[in-house]
Amino acid sequence: MSSIGNLGTPRVHVYGHVSAQPKALAEIFGGEHIDQAVADSDLAIFAINPSAGIDQETIDLWAALSEFQLPRLVVVNELEGSDSDFDDAVMLANRVFDQLVTPYLVLHNDAGDPTALIDLHSLEIIDYSTNPISKRDSDPEHKELVAEFREEYLEALSDAGENAFEAGLLFPAIPVVTTKGIGVDIVKNFIALAAAN
């Protein structure tokens, strides 16, 4: 379904309630915010605001796109200054969408603000509080804290099989804080992966 050869840019459609800023995300990711299911797409991104939940229209759009088995990605936005968090949003999405996988978890500074992500595959920390963004191996403390999540994630990858994301069978959830650039690079990598197939 890739449009790379045809138009040079991937066809990305962004769905979600206005509270999750789908229009802004569409602009950042070179996509189109739309309120109807589009099967002719390289990737469908579903934006979720953990404080607002997931509205019925977004749930219905997810279900409508399930028929087409196109790659879908959940972007959990609006994490800064919220009482709700990434884990809450993923748990809710697991109930109303399909089972999601979390390749990255959010790390917070001492003030409780999101500042970094930990990659559950490599256990590398991506620190967005530095300029430029820095990467380093996680501390033993972090490795211990995420061990169970990592095991679940790696098992889901193994069960789904190779290229499951590209085939529309594996649904990653990515935490994003656009004001700090957190997760934006990762979503762009998923867009490129989806468009290449």
Features of the shown structure:
single chain, alpha/beta, globular, 197 residues, 6-stranded parallel β-sheet
What does this structure look like?
It is built from six helices and ten strands. The relative contact order is 0.17. The protein is globular, with a radius of gyration of 16 Å. The termini are close together. Strands 2-1-3-4-10-5 form a six-stranded parallel sheet, with helices on both faces. It is 34% helix and 22% strand. With 197 residues, the chain is α/β, with parallel strands linked by helices.
Layout: helices, strands, pairs:
Elements: H1 4-7, E1 12-15, H2 22-28, E2 32-33, E3 43-48, H3 56-66, E4 72-76, H4 86-96, E5 100-101, E6 104-108, E7 114-119, E8 124-127, E9 134-137, H5 140-160, E10 171-175, H6 184-195
Parallel strand pairs: 1-2, 1-3, 3-4, 4-10, 5-10
Antiparallel strand pairs: 6-7, 7-8, 8-9
Concise account of the structure shown:
The chain is α/β, with parallel strands linked by helices and 197 residues long. Helix content is 34%, strand content 22%.
Share of residues in helices = 25-40%
Principal-axis shape: globular
Order of helices and strands: HEHEEHEHEEEEEHEH
Q: How many extended strands?
A: 10
Radius of gyration of CA atoms, rounded to a whole number = 16 Å
* Portion in beta strands: 15-25%
Mean pLDDT: 91
